[in-house]
Amino acid sequence: MDAPRKGSPSDDKGPKILAVLWGLTGLTTIVVVARMYIRGRMIRNVGVDDWLIVFSLVMGLVYCAITTANIAIGYGKHAYTLDSLTVEKASFLNTLSFLFGILSFAIPKLAVVAMLNRILNPSFWQKTWLWFLTGTGAAISGVCIIMLFTMCDPPRALWQTSLIMEGKATCRDVWILINYAIFTGASSAFIDLYLAVYPSTVLMKLHMSLRKRLALCAALGLGAIASAMAVVKCTQLKGLADKSDYTYGTADLVLWTNVESDVVIIASCIPTLQPVLERVLGKRKFSSYNNSSRNRYKGSQQLHDYSYDHSKGSKKTGKTDVTLTGVESQESILREDAAHNRGLPLNTIRRTDNVTVQYESRERSPPIQEPRGSW
Fold first, then answer.
1. What are the distances in angstroms from CA 71 to CA 64, 92, 212?
2. Where are the transmembrane segments (predicted)?
3. Cα gap 257→232, rounded to integer Å
4. How confident is the model at residue 297 (pLDDT cuts 50, 70, 90)?
5. Domains of the chain with CATH codes
6. pLDDT at residue 285 above 60?
7. Which range, of 74-78, 173-177, 190-194, 267-271, averages the lowest pLDDT?
8. Class of residue 174 by CB neighbours under 10 A (exposed 0-12, middle 13-18, buried 19+)
9. Is 257 exposed, middle or buried (0-12, 13-18, 19+ CB in 10 A)?
């Protein structure tokens, strides 16, 4: 007896999936290209975190390519509207795409930790905890991939369901995979949220203007959005149990897997885009980057604070540049390579004060305008 048909034969989630996948992945690609341009061309200091993001983007592009090919043959439609061979091919491509989808949202977390270690320079135990946390998350995701491809013996029974009906293959209960996938998604959401909150606990202790602290916290805390996307994705995992309508029941899961990975990548890139944003907003000229951007941004985030002294009709403007690499412990404000190249002893603080004194008439003292700085 045939299973009851679900929905209308005209139902098709394919166009929606393609619109979201390529729209968001296209934006992600632009952001990553901008990041690599800044790190490679303007700063000339490409790090491990940058290559991890590029690798994650490649995994996401492969995921989109496989999904696109899958939709072309009918994925996103109800299974009863497709012939058995098409359903088999669609199930195979969907299973294969999950390999790249999981990697695309697991790897960026490692890149975020590498970036936080470079910018904030936490203590040894903090670094150890951050790498342990994200490394554990990556291992959990790896186990999920292994479980997916070992659910059936032989593995091809995942998409060739006729082998099970013929007694030529055996499979474990699909809810074992679903429950573990929910655990994987929950751990991924927790890690994203932790990596979003952690920088704020450090930055809010710094002695700088509240506006700059809030801006930095917002830039480094966008991973909280990825945490929310991971939670939404977990609600779609039950579609894996819909074997009678697999091509339609798992469509939303495919969509949210891509959304989560793209949001993680974009959030990890936002803090590195300050030079491009300044160029777009006209705060800096391009020629100034050729001379100073490598010193301003290389390996650290440079902050500017301003102090004023007004006395008897004179104006004194002092500008202090502080290079932020060791935030919490304050053990090493300058990077070792920079200190060595400039002939400075290690583990010291270099402070440069540029003072301009202007004498003006008491009767006609123009209002003092605060110079503009950037975080």
1. 10, 12, 46
2. 20-38, 50-75, 95-116, 128-149, 174-194, 214-232
3. 9
4. very low
5. 14-277 (1.20.1070), 300-375 (no CATH)
6. no
7. 267-271
8. middle
9. buried
